[in-house]
Amino acid sequence: MKEFIIVNHISDLDIGAQELVMKAREALAHAYAPYSNFMVGSAALLDDGSVITGMNQENAAYPSGLCAERVALFSAYALYPHVKIIKIAVTAQKRGESELTPATCCGECRQVLLEFENRQKAPIEIIMQSQQHQWIKAPSALSLLPFGFTNDSL
User: Fold this and answer.
1) Check whether domain 5-153 has CATH 3.40.50.300, yes or no
2) Are 141 and 123 within 8 A, CB to CB?
3) What distance in Å separates the CA atoms of residue 119 and residue 52, rounded to the nearest whole number?
4) Pairing of strands 38-46, 85-94
5) Cα 51 from Cα 56, distance rounded (Å)
6) Cβ neighbour number for residue 65 with a 10 Å cutoff
7) If you average pLDDT over residues 82-108, what whole number do you get?
8) pTM higher than 0.85
9) Whether pLDDT at 1 is above 90
10) Structural domain boundaries of the chain?
11) Which residues are catalytic?
């Protein structure tokens, strides 16, 4: 299995990863986070070159909202059901701040990413920012959730 790539600054990522992070950052503007004030944006790159963005959507009837990653993944599949997802970038920002804040995929999103990998029979690279403010490129959801729940678990 490929290893994680960890860099200290976004400029140390390859150009494709940097562009995807910028798309995820642009998606922050459309996050609906009136309760947590923690806005999350994501961008998924498909193997046909399309980029689908997502942003967190909170709801007063918690936990009825959705994370940015799942918004992007479900939208990608709804719009392009036969196109593989190659990678996804995740960004976060606290309301009123200009700098990005660290955020990694939650457990539910890792599980959904794993299901997408299994369905498309191909890994999805994940780009996110660690609590140490480093950028991480994970080679797959499986690398983030090695003991995930799959159809074999049923």
Assistant:
1) no
2) yes
3) 18
4) antiparallel
5) 17
6) 17
7) 96
8) yes
9) no
10) 5-153
11) 69
